[in-house]
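hey so i finally got around to running both of the ones u sent me last week. sorry it took forever, my laptop kept dying halfway thru and i had to restart like 3 times lol. anyway pasting them below in the order u listed, first the sequence line then the structure token line for each. didnt double check formatting much so if smth looks off just lmk and ill redo it

first one:
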Amino acid sequence: MIPASFTYQRAWSIDEALDLMARGGEDAKFLAGGHSLLPLMKLRLAVPEILIDIGRLRELSYIRDDGSHIAVGALTSHHDLATSGLLASALPLLAHAAGQVGDPQVRHRGTIGGSLAHADPASDLPAVILALDATLVARGPSGSREIDAGAFFRGLFESALEPGELLTEIRIPRPQSAGWSFQKFTKRAIDWAIVGVAVQGSSVALVNMGQTPQRASAVERALASGAGPADAAAHAAEGLTPSSDLNASSGYREHLARILVGRALEESVSRA
């Protein structure tokens, strides 16, 4: 498929990117790694008139220890997340999950900021960021603001980013518990997860179990009340409305959620 024609612009700084976006208005889109936006454009599901390439903004590609939290630049690639020594020791859940995204080409080109801003509930990293209680930093015409991960994902492909805003950083607090796990069920390793789960301590988030990444609140309440992994996992689908599609029915997704949450909780306990 061939996308509709568009105007290509390249930004060399954050300020230039925001200025180009302000001039482009609703007809403009930021382009980072391109692995989320370009497929939609080829299918004519997205038809921006202007693409603003921010892929060369090296100032947004970093992984930094800021004391109470780890700061990750929005243009940090999945590969850099997966191979980071700092993340391996401080946030192994994020490093491991990033290494499971797509294939090597996707991991070298795709970025964490692009994945989060795309807000696809079938994507791995939004659920991981949710389980890690991260804070996302957006910069726009009015300056910078912080958005809790729980308030960032608004709907299918819809985030809390305002028009003209650019996601610049993800701030992740150091986990209080060492226990973690990431599980997902796919047809092939490179496919989107039919269902996935990210666990960090007593925080549990689900992939592809609704229109946004979801916290498994019923599981978290069960854990807080003293339930073991198996008993807590039985509540994995409570209050959720997963979709039915060519890959799985809603009922099958609910079944998978219970199975995968049980496995993830068991593995998390073994690592604590």
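and the second one:
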Amino acid sequence: MQDMNLFNLFGNINMKDALLFLPDAVFIVEEESGKILWANNRASIIFEVAREDFVGLYFDDIVAQGMNLAYQSSVKDTSVIGGAAVNDKEFFVELSANLLEDQYFVTIRDVTEMTNILAQAEKTGKLNKDKNMMLTKLSSEFKSPVQSILGFSQALSDGLGGEINEKQRKYVRIINKNATELLYFMDKFFEFAQVESKLYNKQLGMFDVTELIQNVIRDNEVAIATKKLNVSTDFENIISKNIYSDENALKIILQNILEISIKLTEIGNINIELLNPPLEDVVAVGITPIKNATEHSYMLIRVSDNGMGLQENDVDGIFEPYSQLDKTNKKNLVRSISLGSAKELVKALNGAIWLQTEVMKGTIFSLIIPVENGAIPQDE
């Protein structure tokens, strides 16, 4: 391949190998002309083009409106979905780009299979249980390579593979950032696959719900501190803090909700409130009260923030991940997967979950669950 700035940047053989053998396709593209300057081995496999044959091609030749997608990804600091076509082969790709000096550093994943599976799931209303079981059982096999990339990229950044200059460090940080985002997405995806396939086994018992909430807040201390948010709690209006439910399921539900509230809130407050709702409110959200139920039998958990809120088109199908397939914003899909898991777990607890939101005023997530023994069926 012809000489270029990138090769001058990669004075360290570890850096060359890291990019050459990444599991994602990597392209270096000239910003002004849109010409491809370099590609790694995975790019050759995905696009079925020899590495040397990429040089001189225009990026738009292999990815529809590729330069426009690279610009959008770079400016918005997010991945975008696009179409690709090479040698009569058409497929979908997830593209992430960063502009460094006058060149785009582009990573691409072939998401055709996942898109096809999810599109079919949207039509049928649910994924095949056997497929979800397979995904759940193979989750560690999928995540291990990504965890390895995270570890080695961090080691390179820390200088364990030799000294690297500032430009090299920028590329390592990009690798680490993308791997971190991918691992987070995979965690949420496999979590949803497990819950939806009914592989999650409930463990019911008594526990202190206020202590659980405080633990969830502590688990998110770094994200809360980074944004300098104030997270408050209001436990004054509950009859008892000891409830009968599935502690781990409720922790997953609250973790997913709090993560979303934190991401939606740049400046301000998040409040978590506990209430014992009137029975008419329980019935109003579609829950059939247990025999001899009182308002003590149920608990309302409300997580409210004064963040940016959500647009109306972002709220449609927000608890249904498959309905998000036609939206190019990856954040919408990840958010919907997290809330999809929460909804399935709330349903397993014989509860209900919903949200209210207004742009620039904030979002309120609410859920009602039974908190008395006998109100939640045991798994068979």
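quick thing i noticed on the 2nd:
The domain at 1-112 is CATH 3.30.450.20 (Beta-Lactamase).
anyway thats it, ttyl
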